[in-house]
Sequence to fold (122 residues):
Amino acid sequence: MPSVSNAIIRIKNLRLRTYIGFNLEEREKLQDVVINIEIHYPAAKAAISDDVEKALNYKVVCKDIIQHVEEGHFLLLEKLVGDVLEIATGHPWVTFASVTIDKPHALRFADSVSLTLEKHCC
Fold:
């Protein structure tokens, strides 16, 4: 088997609803957000062994993100993205993560507004 370095997990277009924004209407009405996450971790042991204990469980990460977003109230997109990034990098194996969250229809004449944050882990 060839040498394996990092696995890259991508969670694409996770569509959730939350309270996001600082205008009165935004604070009282659930809004759609679309979340894209990229998580890197060393996967050589999982690729060789086929042992689930040696793989990052992306289902657990996703469930934690869903719970946090759907139960939260956020004034700023930066805070929401930062929180999701912290959850995505919570496992000690993660070496890098990137989170982009789109807020559809946030601006007139635009499909969405998005914000991306990245974190390199030791």
The chain has a mean pLDDT of 93. The chain has one domain: 6-120.
